[in-house]
Amino acid sequence: MQSESEQIDMGRALHVAVIMDGNGRWAARRGLPRTAGHRAGLAAARRIVERASDAGIRCLTLYAFSSDNWRRPAPEIETIFWLLRAFLRLETRRLRERGARLEVIGRRDRLPAVVLRIIEKTEAETAFGHGLHLRVAIDYSSRDAIARAAGCVSSAEPSVSWQTMRSLLLRALAGESGEVDLLIRTGGEKRLSDFLLWESAYAELYFTDRMWPDFGAADFDAALDAFRRRERRFGAVPHSLRLVQGGAR
Ligand code: IPE
Ligand code: IPE
Ligand code: MG
Question: Which structural domains are found in the chain, ordered by start?
């Protein structure tokens, strides 16, 4: 049994990413409109942010709205954005109290102006947090992000080696959040849906049938426990792992 401080130490270095899926099915099973599922999903997001912060997770990236989610009916999209605004408004003070820093990733040019304003306000007000780095992906497409980063890197550095290109790309895509260690998807589907494709090259994948609104602190801890039991090899064989971690990566 690990002590609380050992648990925090283990979480400290981790980047955990979550595909928060299953809101609509959660609602349908209860005879409720899909929007009720999104509302319940917001409460789940607040719980998990709190748990991740307590567990000492370094970076938590939550997939809130994909660029392909624009294909949904307009009233559902409006509710999702209304809830995102509520989340940011409600969370700002709590994030500050916890020393957490919020960053939104994804395209900003298609967001409603009111949403953009609250994003900028929350980012500014939490900018100096040294605890959890919370990233919320809104209007996000990993393929778009990779294409954009590749365009920027190749115009700034037209003739670099592949190796340099790889590290420049990682820096352009992930910044200080770095590669994903653990990627959780709720809702039973086993796919990435255009989320953090480059950054998850060696992520441990954890799929659960639990619908996102039902996902709680104990489920998050179970995912972390499963992660800790996995052996990450990064292409090496087990006995040479220490050597590889000390050098090549
Ligand atoms: C995830 O839940 C939330 C968003 C994509 C915004 P869904 O709305 O995809 O729920 P299901 O997958 O239809 O149950
Ligand atoms: C992925 O879920 C996007 C978010 C959770 C925000 P989707 O429900 O949109 O993914 P698909 O359509 O099942 O792949
Ligand atoms: Mg879904």
Answer: 4-247 (3.40.1180.10)
